[in-house]
Each structure stands twice: as structure tokens, then as C-alpha cells.
Amino acid sequence: MTHATSAAELPDLERMQDFSGLEFVQAMLSGDLPGPPIAQTLNYEIEEVEEGRVTFTGTPRFAHLNPMGGVHGGWYGTLLDSAMACAVMTKVPLGSTYTTLEYKVNICRSLACDTPIRATGTVSHGGRRTALASGEIRGLDDGRLYATGSTTCLIMALPDH
Questions:
Q1: pTM of the predicted model, to two decimals?
Q2: Mean pLDDT over residues 71-92, rounded?
């Protein structure tokens, strides 16, 4: 996955007008568009894209731990927000984008540092103005469920340029 290293490398609004949401996320997967810079910081990348479903893989590192030595809840939240919101983006029509209105995370069990995971987001409703999605984080090696999530996203038209 290609990572942006500066704001100048992120796609501008004019370029985003050329893609449906599905095409946009597929372009991130192929490397034709840069991935989100936070993915580099939190050590995850996009793995699969299909309409209404997106998967990321990642591995929490020492830098992602809380003071008690567990993976910080924000790491789970960011992975789930990315997977669920990108799944929503795959349902967004040409000339539109989305933003997360709210999301919820349920951590089922602690995740050890250096445990590879898969975060999957799936759209349950994709309307004209709002979309709902759910997500889960599972271990790549053990298939165990580590966290679940849900989100509501607002779908909006891109501004004309």
C-alpha cells in the first residue's frame, strides 16, 4: 500500500470528483492513490475491497500500548473506523464522499503486542444521506474475535470547484 508522506500527496477534491467511492478505495488498494497517513503510524494496510466490504490487516506494536502494557483502545477504534468507514465509501456515488458521524467499539479480549489481525467492515445500510456498517477484529493466526464495532456515516456531495 502506498502511504502519503505529506498533505500535498493526498488526493484533492477535484481529483476525488473523478471516482465513485468504490473506485476510490480500489485505487488506494492498488496504490494508484495514497493510503491514509495514519495507517503508517498505526501499522495497518488495506487488504481487500469489494462493494460494501473492506478488510485491513495490521499488527499492534510497542508504540501502540497503553501504560499497563495492553494495546490502546484507540488502536482498535482506528482499525474498526477505517474498515467500517471505507466499506461505506464503497457505496458512495460519484461526486460524493462520507464522514463518520459516530462509531462504537466493543473490546472482547485483550490483544497482545505483535499479534497480526484482520479488521473487516461491512455495510448493512447504504442510503442517500446516511449509511450504517459493522466491523470486527479477528486474529489472523487464531481467528479469535478481539473487538466489534458499529458506525453511522453521513454521505454528502463534494463541493463544486
A1: 0.90
A2: 97
